[in-house]
Amino acid sequence: MGGGNCVGLGGHWNVEGRVKQIFVMNHRQARDRAIEAVRLAGDGYVITVQEPKRSLAQNALMWALLTDLAEQVNWHGSKLTAENWKDVCTAALKRQDVVPGIEGGFVVLGTSTSKMTKLEMNELIEFIYHFGSTKGVQFSEQYPEEVSENHA
User: Fold this and answer.
1) CB neighbours of 51 closer than 8 A, spacing ≥ 6?
2) Closest CA to 118 of 65, 67, 50, 69
3) What is the DSSP letter of 100?
4) What radius of gyration do the chain's Cα atoms show?
5) CA separation for the pair 120, 123 (Å, rounded)
6) Are 100 and 106 in contact (CB under 8 A)?
7) Which pLDDT tens digits describe the chain residue by residue (152 residues)?
8) Which contacts (CB < 8 Å, 24+ apart) does range 29-35 have?
9) Does domain 56-149 have CATH number 3.10.180.10?
10) 9: which DSSP letter?
11) Where in the chain is the domain with CATH 1.10.3790.10?
12) Which residues does 53 contact at the CB level (< 8 Å), separation at least 6?
């Protein structure tokens, strides 16, 4: 199976010195090469098909919106950081569990935004816009067309 660093057209070496191939289904050639890689895979190989992860544009927009919340919203008498707001918003969106901490306090069993799909990130961004609008937040960033059109 090929070498090099061509995502969708070959593979790259992982830490064990073996080739790991990733194919992004953006065109017929990538799809054909993925099918061929499956045909050539030996017993015990693992094949994973997954939705695309969130985009860098979505991530940048999310942080701009969270910064706006941090600067404009007083949450039950506290000013939260953008990082705190990320935890609050993802917890609300994903209905996450909260458990007692080892040495007091509480811990939200979280969801990493870097592992979100484009659709999940779009839902989070829409949630932040909605929540912020109920708190009178004037957002510095509007939902750019290239982010909203490419969310799925």
Assistant:
1) 117, 118, 119
2) 50
3) E
4) 20
5) 5
6) yes
7) 443 333 444 454 444 556 788 888 889 999 999 999 899 888 888 888 888 889 999 999 999 999 999 999 999 999 999 999 999 999 888 888 888 999 999 888 767 898 899 999 999 999 999 999 999 999 998 876 655 554 44
8) 33/8, 33/9
9) no
10) T
11) 56-149
12) 114, 115, 116, 117, 118
How many residues are present in the chain? 152
| C-alpha closest to that of 33 among 4, 6, 8 | 8
DSSP states along 60-88: HHHHHHHHHHHHH-EETTEEPPHHHHHHH
